[in-house]
UniProtKB/TrEMBL annotation:
<feature type="transmembrane region" description="Helical">
    <location>
        <begin position="135"/>
        <end position="153"/>
    </location>
</feature>
<dbReference type="InterPro" id="IPR001851">
    <property type="entry name" value="ABC_transp_permease"/>
</dbReference>
<feature type="transmembrane region" description="Helical">
    <location>
        <begin position="270"/>
        <end position="297"/>
    </location>
</feature>
<feature type="transmembrane region" description="Helical">
    <location>
        <begin position="237"/>
        <end position="258"/>
    </location>
</feature>
<feature type="transmembrane region" description="Helical">
    <location>
        <begin position="95"/>
        <end position="114"/>
    </location>
</feature>
<dbReference type="GO" id="GO:0005886">
    <property type="term" value="C:plasma membrane"/>
</dbReference>
<dbReference type="Pfam" id="PF02653">
    <property type="entry name" value="BPD_transp_2"/>
</dbReference>
<feature type="transmembrane region" description="Helical">
    <location>
        <begin position="16"/>
        <end position="35"/>
    </location>
</feature>
<comment type="similarity">
    <text>Belongs to the binding-protein-dependent transport system permease family. LivHM subfamily.</text>
</comment>
<dbReference type="GO" id="GO:0022857">
    <property type="term" value="F:transmembrane transporter activity"/>
</dbReference>
<protein>
    <submittedName>
        <fullName>Amino acid/amide ABC transporter membrane protein 1, HAAT family</fullName>
    </submittedName>
</protein>
<feature type="transmembrane region" description="Helical">
    <location>
        <begin position="42"/>
        <end position="64"/>
    </location>
</feature>
<feature type="transmembrane region" description="Helical">
    <location>
        <begin position="190"/>
        <end position="216"/>
    </location>
</feature>
<keyword id="KW-0812">Transmembrane</keyword>
<dbReference type="InterPro" id="IPR052157">
    <property type="entry name" value="BCAA_transport_permease"/>
</dbReference>
<feature type="transmembrane region" description="Helical">
    <location>
        <begin position="309"/>
        <end position="328"/>
    </location>
</feature>
<keyword id="KW-0472">Membrane</keyword>
Length: 343
């Protein structure tokens, strides 16, 4: 039982990232009808926003410290963060250790702008083009963004540690009545799951209970009728593209302590996220979220040593096997609308 619970937690951890990226992909496809293969790059940019925030907070200047001297008795030069002049040494250090959560302040405006620029500058010209053209141009854009990140930050992964109070592990089994150390799990992964749940709930609440969201949902169902009512639905869909980019960016920023940001991490998640979208149903927001967590949990169980001993490598292909079965039996996906992806 403890192994099962541990794999469920692992699945929820992976599923959280899958669900957030797939949610943004589905928002774009459902509103604009665009298959956006650059969405994984948005996840990567969000992760590097966390790296950027860490570097901004650690910007330092050199000062003479008379309390420290070399072997000749000369005072040493030390680097002091600029934040120390405002918040003091301890306050500055505290802010630096919280750079990943604080990066949310940077991620939201940056990703909204990136999403708006992508949609207005490139993708709007491909609305009426075949999906193959959309895939090609957005995949090319993803490669360009990937190479820009590599040119700026280098090719090596960059560590972005979680705040000290969340960097350890917690004995969950002890709270569930198991033996000590039976189910030990990293705290930040639990934080990431909770964060993902909040973001997903916020997106659904925004679409369900706000006037803007209701108009968007109406536009997704019948764009022409909404336009005939005098509503500029195109402008609202552009804002939704920015919102989808922000969701992907937030997912990437908070994932930085789990997987050190690198320039190809967007591609690593992109294919899996598209599989999640197809399994859940193209255009179905609940389907994207459900499929994300479902496939994450299945991948978690497939990675157990007992399973891999019987079926070596199953953890690498289980998601694709599920996708094949779903598409053969239900081409529209688990919660997809009739007619979508069936022609």
């Amino acid at each position: 039982m403890d192994a099962i619970i541990l794999q469920i937690l692992n699945g929820l951890d992976k599923g959280s990232a899958y669900a957030l990226i797939a949610l943004g992909l589905t928002l774009i496809f459902g509103t604009l009808g665009v298959v956006n293969f650059a969405h994984g790059a948005l996840f990567m940019i969000g992760a590097f926003c966390a790296v950027t925030m860490q570097r901004l907070l650690t910007l330092s200047h050199t000062v003479i410290d008379p309390s420290q001297t070399d072997f000749l008795g000369n005072p040493l030069q030390t680097k002091v963060p600029y934040l120390a002049s405002v918040f003091g040494t301890e306050g500055a250090q505290a802010l630096i250790t919280w750079s990943v959560p604080l990066s949310i302040i940077l991620v939201i405006p940056v990703m909204l702008f990136v999403g708006w620029a992508m949609e207005r500058g490139l993708i709007k010209h491909f609305y009426k083009r075949p999906h193959a053209d959309q895939i090609l141009v957005t995949f090319g854009l993803a490669i360009v963004l990937q190479e820009i990140i590599r040119a700026i930050y280098g090719a090596n992964p960059i560590q972005s540690p979680a705040p000290p109070m969340f960097s350890g592990s917690i004995d969950i089994g002890e709270y569930l009545g198991f033996q000590a150390n039976a189910i030990v799990y990293p705290i930040w992964r639990l934080v990431y799951f909770a964060f993902s749940a909040v973001i997903i709930a916020a997106v659904f609440a925004f679409l369900q209970f706000t006037t803007f969201g209701m108009v968007v949902r109406a536009g997704m169902a019948d764009r022409e009728t909404v336009g005939m009512l005098g509503i500029d639905i195109d402008k609202r869909f552009t804002l939704m593209f920015g919102l989808a980019a922000a969701v992907a960016g937030l997912a990437g920023a908070m994932y930085a302590p789990i997987v050190s940001p690198n320039y190809h991490m967007g591609m690593d998640f992109l294919v899996l996220s598209f599989v999640v979208v197809v399994v859940g149903g193209m255009g179905s927001l609940p389907g994207a979220v459900f499929a994300g967590f479902l496939l994450g949990i299945l991948q978690g169980f497939a990675s157990m040593n007992e399973v891999k001993a019987v079926l070596p490598g199953i953890d690498q292909i289980v998601i694709y096997l599920v996708a094949i079965i779903i598409l053969l039996t239900r081409p529209r996906g688990l919660m997809g609308r009739a007619g979508v992806m069936e022609d």
